[in-house]
Amino acid sequence: MNPSSAKPGDKVTVTAPDADCNPRYGGNARIQVTVTDATSVEVVNTTAPMNDAGGFIYSFEVPAQTAAGDAAVTAIPYNIDWCDDTGKNNRADGAAVPLHRASCVMPMKPLSITR
User: Which end of the chain has less neighbouring CB within 10 Å, N or C?
Assistant: First the structure.
């Protein structure tokens, strides 16, 4: 994420490189990006294109109503049930390649909102 500090009206870009594990998201894959401000108000909740390997670039303008303080930015594959409480990958039943367990913790990056 760049920059890591912004004020309302500033542009912030969230990116991720392609995964090296061949996730096979498909040609119409989307990433869901949310920004929750310091008062726990969700000020951004949208989807953007993501490639088959999970790479994406998404830019947004910090909304005027975003509270000052530490905001949380998350980005997860949209509408994909890929990790549940059993640790089973629900998308890869019968996969011909060995699977590696990954963390199901929500990926989050802090964004400092200033005035």
Answer: C
Enter the DSSP assignment of 95: -
Greatest pairwise CA separation for the chain in angstroms: 52
For 23, the 3-state DSSP assignment is coil
Tell me the C-alpha distance between 69 and 88, whole Å.
37
Closest to 75 measured CA to CA, from 60, 93, 90, 97: 60
Model confidence at 88, pLDDT cuts 50, 70, 90, reads: low
Please name the helix (run of DSSP H) or strand (run of DSSP E) that holds residue 30, with its range, or none: strand 30-36
Domain regions of the chain by residue span: 5-113
* Topology of the domain covering 5-113: Immunoglobulin-like (2.60.40)
